[in-house]
Amino acid sequence: MELIECFLQFTVQKALEEAEVLFHKSSPPEKPFEFKYSSRDILLNLSKDPFFSSEPLNEDLKALSAYINYLLGVNFLETEETSQGEEYFKNALSGFSQLSEEKMSAFLNILQDIYNNLGFLLINREELEKGMGCLAKAEDLYLSLKDVEEFNCQDLKSYLQNRLKNNKTRFNPYWKMGISQAKTESFFTLTLFYLAQAYTKLGMKEKAAFYCGNTMKRQYENKEFQLKEWCINSISLAEFYQNNKNFAQAFYLLQAGDSLIPAGKRKKLKATFNMSFARLFQEFLKYMVTIISEEQKDFEGISNIVNKKHLIFETFPTKFVDLEVPKDPEGVTKIFRLSNTQYKKSLAFFVLDGYVTEHIEMSQEVSEMLKTLALLETDNPRKFALLEKRKDLLEPLQNQLNPKAYPAFCQKLLVELAEIYNEMFENRFHELFLKNDAKPKKNKVDAMNKYGFAAIGEYQKIEKMLLEQQKEQKDQPKEHYQSIINTRFNMAKAFNKIYAADKKEKVEMMKKSLDNYKFIVEFIKEALKTKGNLEWDFSEQLKICTEMVELIPAKIDKINKE
After folding, report:
1. In which element (H, E) is residue 496 found?
2. What is the C-alpha to C-alpha distance for residues 437 and 18, in angstroms, rounded to an integer?
3. Beta-carbon neighbour count of residue 280 at 10 Å?
4. Half-sphere exposure of 409 toward its Cβ, with a 13 Å CA cutoff?
5. How far apart are alpha carbons 183 and 400 in whole angstroms?
6. Which helix (H) or strand (E) holds 283?
7. Tens of pLDDT, residues 71-125
8. What angle do CA 423, 543, 417 make, to 5 degrees?
9. What is the C-alpha separation between 373 and 474, in angstroms, rounded?
């Protein structure tokens, strides 16, 4: 027995100390796991010591063997060798299960960690049922430990720190690990984090959000978080509640994350929060425009959805604020201003020269918000003003972007600008020729025509881009052909509405309209010939365009005879 005690106190102690120091030592970038491999070698050699071959093993040696297997499991997991790590964790679990209850009690925190790690590995391998089983055991273990006071708690790290102060310190880490309240709580935070991942994979979004929120709450309360990671998680969780129309909960989470950023620091992270606030209010605006447009009257019920409270960080200075639910266009405009202010702040950081994706996406989101706002607008001039704002926002971006470098963005901008110019043209046409009986002034007609020609110009650019795509790849989906048809159809309608006082010019516009309708008829027939009538159905468009091809020549003849 004295020989075993000597082995435990000196040989094991020295080996575990060396392994611990090497495991946490920073390796060079070209060999990122160099010292972890050295630590592993020490543990493997220790596990092969003849003392572990003696029969029967006493409880101290059983505990030590299980503990070494645990350390090897952590080592293999850290070096991304997960299958080997899993085997060592299972071996450790088997070894600990053979201990008496008294001896086992010193390793309950380690058991938490083993169940966590096994759960994590199994879930990532899509063995969700087994993984959830391990995490359930970790959760049960926490519930039995959370009220236990510190018990003989000292680990290798604290031992090494103590020994620096006092060379006579003696400590057997393999069986006097003990229970630490700090570790109990820290490991349970990981349990919740892995459960959030598991429920996400299972598609149980509500439960995933619950566990994610509680993980964040514990991380904050225990000061166990990295600022950027916590903030990004608060944004992601806010997006979930935003999608559920629980806008106040989403706003609270964004405020919580935003409040952690030191003043004047982390400017990109701050701008990311500005973007998230902007998008939250944009979604709130869209939701309320739909509600008001559909003339829904249950504003109390809507308020309950918007302001539903799911998660509160009790120790956080941020307060949960109920959002005011607008009942009319004026109230919706207030939401627009909130969103627009946040977009401006974010765009000031995410400038076009350096952050093309973020800048273009946000600019298009502001345009979409203006478009949504216009749905409640009944005044024609104010509708036109909103269209003009969208044009002024997007047109400079189109002029600055290189189509070869950013083809997708350029195509989206072209489509949106074509739509805006076309709506401006239709708006002026309605104002001058449908709403007003008096003969319009020439300058107003010229201004209207300018928008019509601008729309036609954008549609021509779109068609050119689409046809180039078709040359590069002949096999295109139905949506590609539909886009070409829509583009030509809008050009045909615009030419037909362009106002010309001169008979010759009027006939010329009508002929251009006719040419576009003819193109569509032939284009559809060719597409159907290639793809087959059953696969692609353009019958409605074909019918309309065929009728126009028959009607326009008669109109041209009538004009010529006048």
Report:
1. helix 478-497
2. 95
3. 26
4. 22
5. 55
6. helix 267-293
7. 999 999 999 999 999 999 999 999 999 998 888 888 999 999 999 999 999 999 9
8. 20
9. 40
Q: Where in the chain is the domain with CATH 1.25.40?
A: 2-193
Phi-psi region of 178 (alpha: psi -120 to 50; beta: other; left: phi over 0): left
Contacts of 6 (CB under 8 A, 6+ apart): none
Q: Give me the amino acid identity at 234.
A: S
Q: What is the pLDDT of residues 339-372, one digit of tens each?
A: 999 999 999 999 999 999 999 999 999 999 999 9
- CB count within 10 Å of CB 434 equals 9
Distance between CA atoms of residues 395 and 398, nearest Å: 5
d(CA 502, CA 251): 59
- Average pLDDT (379-393) is 95
R_g of the chain, CA atoms, integer Å: 35
At a CB cut-off of 8 Å and minimum separation 6, what does 4 contact?
51, 58, 60, 61
Burial of 388 (0-12, 13-18, 19+ CB in 10 A): middle
What does the pLDDT look like over 413-450, one tens digit per residue?
Answer: 999 999 999 999 999 999 888 877 778 888 999 999 99
Residue 179: what pLDDT? 81
- The class level of CATH for 2-193 reads mainly alpha
Helix 356-374 crosses helix 380-400 at what angle (to 10 degrees)?
170
Within 10 angstroms of residue 28's Cβ, the number of other Cβ atoms is 8
Residue with the two structure tokens 């002026």: 428
Question: Can you give the pLDDT at residue 532?
Answer: 61
Count of CB atoms situated within 10 Å of the CB of 106: 21
Q: How far is CA 520 from CA 271, 482, 507, 514, 529, in A?
A: 46, 10, 20, 10, 14
What are residue 509's phi and psi, to 5 degrees?
Answer: -65, -40
Distance set, CA 246 to CA 24, 209, 281, 300 (Å): 44, 13, 12, 14
Q: Structure tokens of 105?
A: 């009690």
How far apart CA 220 and CA 28 sit, in angstroms, is: 32
* Listed ranges 29-38, 140-149, 341-350, 546-555; the one with the highest mean pLDDT: 341-350
Q: Residue written as tokens 């078709």?
A: 470
